[in-house]
Amino acid sequence: MSALLAVAAVSASASDPENCLMCHRYRSLARLDDDRQTIRLYYVDPRYTDHALGPHAKLLCTDCHKRSEVEVIPHARVSPVDCTQMCHLAAPGQLETVFAHDGIASALESSVHNAEVLDEANRLLGAPLRPGQARCLLCHDEPVFRRSEESWAQQEAPIGRCNVCHTEHLPKDTRYYYWHVHARSRPARTHRGTVRACGVCHSNSRIRERFQMPDSAATYLASFHGKAMLLGSEATAGCLDCHVAQLQNVHIMKPRKDPASPTNPGRLADTCRSPTCHPTAGHGVSTAAIHLELSTSGGIEFFIAVIFVLLILFTFGPSVLLQALEMLQIVFDRRDPQHDRRRELADRLMASPEGRRLLKRFTPHQRVQHWILFATFTALVATGFPIRFADRDWAAWIVHTIGSLGRVRLIHRWAGAILLLGMGYHILYVLVTAWKRKKRTGKSVIQTLLDLPMVMRWHDWKELFHLFAYLLFLRRTRPEAGRFSYEEKFEYFGVFWGCTLLGVTGIMMWANALTTQYLTGRVLTVAALIHAFEAFLALLHVGVVHLIGVIFSPTVFPLSPAMITGDTPADEMAEAHSAMLTEVENRLKAGPAGEASHG
């Protein structure tokens, strides 16, 4: 045991000449305080000094702790450390250097975080700092050298070049000083670490009530920048990027009302349009809400949220109810009295080549358009929702699997662009189809468009109420639907509605610099809100209602072939498209015919 202690003492002597780590390197070194309630831990990680991991690694323990208190074992009662005290730094063979943090203490006195504010915050936090302890410890812990994400070999290369000269002739601990300069040229904390430090006070209810502050940490995390930060981006704006002027001391943080503050209304636009953030944006970018508390805002954002909640209730709600009632019919093994006759008719018509052709509800052209919609929608969901729910572990996993947040955004934007191109092509396809019908029927353009099979008519709404009555056991028969059911027509309208809303708001956010040249930045906040709610509504309808209809419904399980081969199962035809069966039967009886209208 003595030998081991001797070896430990020798290994520590170079970086720990006072040999404090001989005891303090052990994790279990602790004691109960006088109140018998508090445990004092005295462990010091030896790697910090052995490997010079931080700027304090070259300090002696007695540079901060009074020698008279720690030179005896057991130590006398140790006074709290004052971080602003003067330090005397001297390497072997060099002149002594005097250094102190008192300049930072002076800077804090001219900021919002002055001594009075910090003392009050300490009190409201439950006094984590004992009397006499430095106020710095409310925000700071042991500083370490922050290393970039480059490979170690790349980072160590400059040190080797330094050592060409800094040998015994010009002695210098080049590794330590390189990392000291390198670390100080970079932020001391990551954005995530900064939010944690700021959140200690800015998310504390007692402190927020005392100083009349919003929950800035929570609202930042819910913002565009906060979500990017949660997904690992250090290029996005953090707390200090907005609240500290460029190249300014971070300890001189001014209140928003101060004209010198970068968040002052007179300077905020320039803060947002800094070379590292939105240099090409318009002046209006500064009015985009970063710290939006939706529940208490009372503005247009709150009313938009209310509208979408109502939309979800009154569109998705009835759709789910409809599906649930359909499942209930299966439980009771209930069918329309005409189901068997219609099923026999469907089988007979499909046995005929002409009948099978007329019963195809989707042409090859339409099926290709559907699969483009499916592919782009899937890509948008897979890349959009991880950004929306950035605080979830699964979101980080998806982003990491794809590669990076930048790649996720790129895929999302181009998937959206392809979706809009597909929508534009579909509109052109509909117009061409309508024009051909107009020439064939001689009807007006408006009437021709209204007669298209996917357009909802007043008759459809009446039949929808008829269907609800049937599912609620109030009527004996199902309504007879044509080529497209009422649910399919409603979903078709939803695709147009959703693509338009998502497309317009997505383009506005993608081209945010151009948007803010002409519109207020608050439009971006509204656009982001609409985009998120509409995406959620679309996912609910597609992921629950639509998938049940085309995959999990007993009439099509395990998958409806309608969008693969164009053929609809006989059971589904008999149950959901009986009017189409009757129309095709009448056409075949009437003799040779072209494509059925299937209205």
What does this structure look like?
With 599 residues, the chain is mainly α. The chain has a domain at 187-291. Helices cover 56% and strands 2% of the residues. The chain has helices at residues 2-13, 21-24, 46-50, 67-70, 102-109, 115-124, 152-162, 174-184, 191-202, 205-211, 216-221, 224-230, 239-243, 268-272, 294-297, 300-331, 339-351, 353-358, 364-388, 393-402, 405-441, 445-450, 458-471, 486-510, 512-518, 522-552, 570-576, 578-590, and strands spanning 30-32, 39-41, 87-89, 97-99. A hairpin with a 7-residue loop joins strand 3 and strand 4. Helix 17 crosses helix 27, helix 17 packs across helix 28 (578-590) and helix 19 (364-388) crosses helix 20 (393-402). The termini are far apart. Mean pLDDT is 86; it is low at 1-12 and 593-599.
The low-confidence runs, each spanning 5 or more residues with pLDDT under 50, are 1-12, 593-599
β-strand number: 4
- The helix/strand class is mainly alpha
Helix content: 55-70%
Count of alpha and pi helical runs: 28
Biggest sheet architecture: 2 strands, antiparallel
Distance between the termini: 93 Å
List keywords for this structure.
single chain; 599 residues; mainly alpha; two-stranded antiparallel sheet; 28 helices; 2% strand; disordered N terminus
Topology:
Elements: H1 2-13, H2 21-24, E1 30-32, E2 39-41, H3 46-50, H4 67-70, E3 87-89, E4 97-99, H5 102-109, H6 115-124, H7 152-162, H8 174-184, H9 191-202, H10 205-211, H11 216-221, H12 224-230, H13 239-243, H14 268-272, H15 294-297, H16 300-331, H17 339-351, H18 353-358, H19 364-388, H20 393-402, H21 405-441, H22 445-450, H23 458-471, H24 486-510, H25 512-518, H26 522-552, H27 570-576, H28 578-590
Antiparallel strand pairs: 1-2, 3-4
